[in-house]
Amino acid sequence: MIHDADPLGRQGSRADLHSAGPGVTVSGPLAIPAIRRSPLSNVVELEALSVAVEAKRLRWVTLRVVGERDGRFDTGDIDELIGRAADQ
């Protein structure tokens, strides 16, 4: 490998300067901090799951309203699905 200094004074091969991947800590002028999970990540993920479950429940509620008018849907089955979504 060719070792040379770049305009910023970093020494080492070009491959060494560009080969660090995510989560790798490099020492020197180009130190890349290790990637860490944010303390709020769990909260955001839980909120996303809650929103998804509520959206599913609301789809069943909408289908229940359509089923009352249409007659092709068994509203008893839909009521059970609404209850299951609410229990999640």
Tell me what you see in this structure.
This protein is mostly helical. Helix content is 55%, strand content 5%. It has helices at residues 14-18, 41-70, 75-87; strands at 4-5, 11-12. The protein has a two-stranded antiparallel ribbon with strand order 1-2.
Helix content: 40-55%
Order of helices and strands: EEHHH
* Shape designation: rod-shaped
How many DSSP helices?
3
Largest sheet geometry: 2 strands, antiparallel
Mean pLDDT across residues: 78
Number of strands: 2
The termini sit apart by: 58 Å
Q: How large a portion of the residues is in β-strands, by DSSP E?
A: under 5%
Give the helices and strands, then pairings.
Elements: E1 4-5, E2 11-12, H1 14-18, H2 41-70, H3 75-87
Antiparallel strand pairs: 1-2
Summed up:
The chain is mainly alpha-helical and 88 residues long. The protein has helices spanning 14-18, 41-70, 75-87, and strands at residues 4-5, 11-12.
Task: Based on the model shown, name its key terms.
single chain; 88 residues; mainly alpha; 2 domains; two-stranded antiparallel ribbon; 3 helices; 2 strands; rod-shaped
